[in-house]
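Researcher: I'm preparing a figure for a lab meeting and need a structural model of a single chain. I don't have an experimental structure, so a prediction will have to do for now. The sequence is pasted below. Please return the structure as tokens so I can convert it later.
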Amino acid sequence: MKFRTHIMTAAAVTAGGILLHEEITQGGGIEGWEAWTNWVGFHTPNFLTGNGEEGGFWGVIDYALALLVASIGGLFPDIDHKNSYISNKLHFSTAWFMKHRGPTHTIYMYLGMIGFYWYATSFGTVHFSGFDFSGRAEVNYLPLIGEFLFWLGIGSLLHIFGDMHTTSGVRIFGARMRAYRTLPSFLIFSTGGGKESIFMFLYTALFLYSVLGHFEGLGLFTGLFS
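Model: Understood. Here is the structure written out token by token.
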């Protein structure tokens, strides 16, 4: 899968997950769905606000940061390919000691990132408690790190999810395990093929739908979950 498709997959599904969580929790939810989104951990981003507020200037910044970090996560697993977009930008790759779609394409590290978020939030929420006389912000750093790692882990898992759309699949549990694919054989595609362009269009549509639903309160999911 091309890097642009990976970015859009991560951004679109992240935005969709946030919107889904907000719609079913604010609207009362339905049995099962609210528990599922809470278990996965989708929540209104709170890098700075600390209270999950979606409105206001800082709420907008929080939302943008979540999508940005998830998009970076959508590129991260390809650090194991020397010609990947992220390796070229960072001028670094792990290709010299690990094969492509190897350890960075397994789920364990990214589940650990999400697990750290749950650990970090046990120490409270992210907050800025003002500035001291030296001009430095007083920040609850551990939840802030957890918030960053959560969205990075989500984006990285969505990268793996995207690669599972392709013909070779991904060995998500390790090199000795079978490769998994997310789609039936007639929808599986090769990187750069015409089918990938179709999925790029679909994920772009999901992204726009979710962002508009988040910011403008269009209520597009209300009828589905009422």
